[in-house]
Design goal:
The chain is mainly beta. The protein contains no helices and eleven strands.
Length: 128
């Protein structure tokens, strides 16, 4: 059974930075794709970042492009989301997601229904 556990959320001032971690129990190499999503209160789930296992390219949502960086440490079975220049509108619960089956295109990473494993989420609150 694969489990994803996020950590690193908290309260941060606008303009500040925060790094989220997602530890994958089991072999991260089994996961064909990894992604980060977020959901603000009363809002729909939003794609933040994602990457395919075999590719170096990372896909980002338009609202975070240039500010957030997704990375991974395969030795630690961990993916990260470094968030910089945080804004009020970044306040949300952030979720790590994984897909264990092949995916035809990185363009599909932005759709939450392509992922079959989800973490419990970690709250990020940006104070102005």
């Amino acid at each position: 059974q694969v489990q994803l556990v996020e950590s690193g959320g908290g309260l941060v001032q606008a303009g500040g930075s925060l790094r989220l971690s997602c530890v994958v129990s089991g072999d991260i190499f089994r996961m064909y794709a990894m992604g980060w999503f977020r959901q603000g209160q009363g809002k729909e789930r939003e794609f933040v970042a994602g990457r395919l296992r075999s590719a170096e390219s990372v896909y980002y949502g338009d609202s975070v492009k240039g500010r957030f960086i997704m990375s991974r440490d395969l030795a630690k079975n961990t993916v990260y989301l470094e968030m910089n220049r945080l804004k009020d509108e970044d306040t949300a619960a952030y979720y790590c997601a994984a897909r264990s089956a092949a995916l035809g295109s990185g363009d599909l990473l932005k759709y939450d229904d392509v992922y079959n494993y989800w973490g419990q989420g970690t709250q990020v609150t940006v104070a102005s």
